[in-house]
Amino acid sequence: MAKKNENRMPSGFAGLTRYFDESPEKVKLTPTQVIILCASVIAVVSTLKFIM
Q1: Rounded distance between C-alpha atoms, residue 50 and residue 28, angstroms
Q2: Tens-digit pLDDT profile for residues 1-52
Q3: Most CB contacts within 10 A, which of 9, 20, 24, 39?
Q4: How many angstroms separate the CA atoms of 21 and 11, rounded?
Q5: Which pTM value belongs to this model?
Q6: Which of 29, 47, 26, 28 is nearest to 37 (CA)?
Q7: Which of 43, 23, 39 is nearest to 31 (CA)?
Q8: Alpha-carbon distances of 23 from 26, 39, 48, rounded to whole Å
């Protein structure tokens, strides 16, 4: 029987990136707040373009 060629790669992260669970965020926004903020900015810019 022929021997199997067992070349093994060194163990590592295999291309995976680890992120820390806790980040020092000062402002936490929910997705709803972000959508409302974007809609508000769009409304203000549209109003300013219409007026000028």
Answers
A1: 33
A2: 555 666 555 555 565 666 666 667 788 899 999 999 999 999 999 999 999 8
A3: 39
A4: 23
A5: 0.51
A6: 29
A7: 39
A8: 9, 27, 37
Q: How far apart are CA 42 and CA 19, in angstroms?
A: 33
Query: Rounded distance, CA 14 to CA 4, Å?
Result: 24
Q: Within 10 Å of residue 14's Cβ, how many Cβ atoms? A: 6
Can you list the alpha helix ranges (DSSP code H) found in 1-52? 31-51
For residues 38 and 45, give the distance between their C-alpha atoms in angstroms, rounded to a whole number.
11
8-14 LR contacts (CB < 8 Å, sep 24+): none
